UniProtKB/TrEMBL annotation:
GO biological process terms, semicolon-separated: phototransduction
Keyword Transmembrane helix: yes
GO molecular function: G protein-coupled receptor activity; photoreceptor activity
Annotated family: Belongs to the G-protein coupled receptor 1 family.
Protein name: OPSP protein
Length: 193
């Protein structure tokens, strides 16, 4: 799940850099791509390894079918890890996504002011993609984050195993939705396929 969130943030920043760069992109150089992949996996590993070393723990999630961070433990060790996960693995990636797509949209608006005919259509396509990406990100991850925070800081038993299933499925299925959004809303990818 975290690799999915971080990959979305890296991808949004990469799109922003590519679209706002004045020079032509070098499609034969995969160095930036590999750097983004390695950084995404490293960042995710940094935030998923601490329970293996005693900062919080892993255990059955919700209905007991899957394994996740122990959301139900009320001690300070666990609560601090949950808060850090929330900030560094949800809020910051979301901030990067909003920043990158916001800046990208501003750049497209400036370009469309110069070339009104193609700029307006391009701006609308990018705006739709930005809105869909942000809404999907929030729909997939906000319920899961809310359930985790309620389970950690709320009254014991407030989140039943049944109530935690849908947010968990939504969050874990986000990796399926993201490629679909990019394929159908990115004209360059659609043409390539």
């Amino acid at each position: 799940g975290i690799i999915s969130l971080i990959s979305l943030a890296v991808l949004s920043y990469e799109r922003y850099c590519t679209m706002t760069r004045t020079t032509e992109a070098d499609t034969t150089n995969y160095r930036k791509t590999w750097t983004g992949i390695i950084l995404s996996w490293t960042y995710s590993l940094v935030w998923t390894a601490p329970p293996l070393f005693g900062w919080s723990s892993y255990g059955p999630e919700g209905s007991g079918i899957t394994c996740s961070v122990n959301w139900h433990s009320k001690d300070a060790n666990n609560a601090s890890y949950i808060v850090c996960l929330f900030i560094f693995c949800l809020v910051i990636p979301f901030g990067i996504i909003v920043y990158s797509y916001g800046k990208l949209l501003c750049a497209v608006r400036q370009a469309s002011a110069i070339n009104k005919a193609t700029g307006q259509t391009r701006e609308q396509r990018i705006l739709i993609m930005v809105v869909v990406m942000v809404v999907c990100f929030l729909l997939c991850w906000l319920p899961y984050a809310a359930v985790a925070l309620i389970a950690t800081f709320g009254k014991p038993g407030l989140i039943t195993p049944t109530a935690s299933i849908i947010p968990s499925i939504l969050a874990k299925s986000s990796t399926v939705y993201n490629p679909i959004i990019y394929i159908f809303l990115n004209k360059q990818v659609s043409k390539t396929l």
